[in-house]
Structures are given as structure tokens and as C-alpha cells.
Design a protein that fits this description.
By secondary structure, the chain is α/β, with parallel strands linked by helices. It contains eight helices and seven strands; from the N terminus they run ββββαβαααααβαβα. Helix 3 crosses helix 4. The radius of gyration is 16 Å and the shape is globular.
Length: 223
């Protein structure tokens, strides 16, 4: 995956690692601000591996936030990493992102992937943001169609009906989730079932799948 700091202070002793979902870019998250004393590190453009992260040894705490399909990518990284994680917060996503009951319908994901093009992207942005105006505001922050198509296919090949392996709750100190009630990408009911099965009481917001307020709260640990 590609990565970069969205906020970096040499004096910071706390780090929030943010795993973004499909189609993301740093420009889309330029308004996010970390809590005081925190660095904010973004990963985007899934290519099958997280890759090399910066030196984490100088941080006293490491928190992880995942958004959309980034929730599963983040959880897999946490389970496979020796880095102690204090708080894991999921936003608008689940540990089984392409699943009939606990995520996006596999049939819907297949249709989106197989028919992907400019018209599909326009419809996705409208569903993700909930309005024509908000969708237009995000145009220009996405990558090329070919890049998006490749990432979408790889996400399907990797996570379609793939159960999550491991005990995430036992791996982190705090496990939390935000559910946008107006989500038209990952149905809110599916998110509720997924986190309820893990004993997590989610924070509900009135936002659509594109939910900057919930993301900002998650990055600040406001759960």
C-alpha cells in the first residue's frame, strides 16, 4: 500500500495509523487533524500488502483506525504485527467486508467490479456521499480509472466471503466502531450485526458512508 504522514511532529509520542478504503487518496483526507501530541499516518491503495511502516519504536501508544474496506485491512495488519495497539476503531466497515449478512452483498460487489467504469464511479460517489453536491466535491480526489479497477478486483479476490481469522478483541485494549446510519455502501444493519456479534456497542451517526465527522472523532479516540 502507499503511505504518508498526514500530520507529523518530531515531538509527538503517540501515533494514529489510518487505513483508508477503496479508491482513496491523501487529498480526500487533508482536513483530518490528529489529537494533540499525535502523528497521523495514512495507508491507501491496497495492493495485497501493507508494506513498510515508519519506525514505531519512539511512540508511547499506537492507535489504529480503519474506514470502509480499510477496516479489514487494518485488522489483518493488527493481528499479524508485533506492535502493541491501544485502540482499534472501525468506521463504516466490518471485519468481513464482502459478506451477505455482515458486509456488502457479494453480488453487489461483483456487479460493481465487473461493470466498473466512469458511470459506475459516478454512481458510487453519489451513494457514498448521499448528495450530488458532496459527490462533486470529491471529484478530483480519486485516482485513475485503471488504478481504481485494479484495486477493486484485488479487494474482491482477497476478501470476498473471507472469514476473519483471529481474536481482534484480545489483541487490542479498546475495540470500537462507528456506524453511519445513512450508509448506502455497507448497510448499517450489516454493520450492526457484525459488531454486535463481537459484543461491541457502536456509536451511531447520521452521516452517509463518507463520514468526515465520524472519522475525525475516531482519530481523536472520541468513543
Amino acid at each position: 500500500m502507499k503511505n504518508r504522514f498526514l500530520a507529523h511532529d518530531p515531538a509527538a509520542r503517540h501515533l494514529t495509523i489510518f487505513f483508508a478504503g477503496w479508491g482513496s487518496s491523501p487529498e480526500r483526507f487533508q482536513d483530518l487533524r490528529p489529537a494533540g501530541g499525535h502523528d497521523l499516518f495514512l495507508l491507501w491503495d491496497f495492493d495485497g500488502a501493507v508494506g513498510t511502516l515508519p519506525d514505531l519504536s519512539r511512540y508511547e501508544t499506537v492507535d489504529v483506525v480503519g474506514w470502509s474496506l480499510g477496516v479489514r485491512i487494518a485488522a489483518d495488519w493488527v493481528m499479524g504485527s508485533p506492535v502493541p495497539v491501544r485502540r482499534f476503531t472501525a468506521v463504516a466497515g466490518t471485519l468481513t467486508p464482502i459478506d451477505r449478512r455482515l458486509g456488502i452483498s457479494p453480488l453487489v460487489f461483483d456487479r460493481t467490479t465487473d461493470r466498473f467504469g466512469e458511470a459506475t464511479l459516478e454512481g458510487f460517489l453519489l451513494n457514498m456521499t448521499g448528495s450530488v453536491e458532496a459527490a462533486r466535491a470529491l471529484r478530483g480526489t480519486e485516482r485513475s480509472l485503471e488504478s481504481l479497477r485494479c484495486e477493486l478486483r484485488l479487494l474482491r479476490d482477497t476478501y470476498r466471503e473471507a472469514p476473519f481469522e483471529g481474536d481482534l478483541r484480545g489483541r487490542v485494549e479498546v475495540l470500537a466502531a462507528f456506524i453511519p446510519e445513512a450508509d448506502r455502501i455497507v448497510p448499517a444493519a450489516a454493520q450492526e450485526r457484525a459488531w454486535g456479534a463481537l459484543g461491541v456497542t457502536p456509536v451511531r451517526t447520521g452521516e452517509p458512508h463518507w463520514c468526515p465527522e465520524a472519522l475525525q472523532r475516531a482519530i481523536h479516540g472520541e468513543v
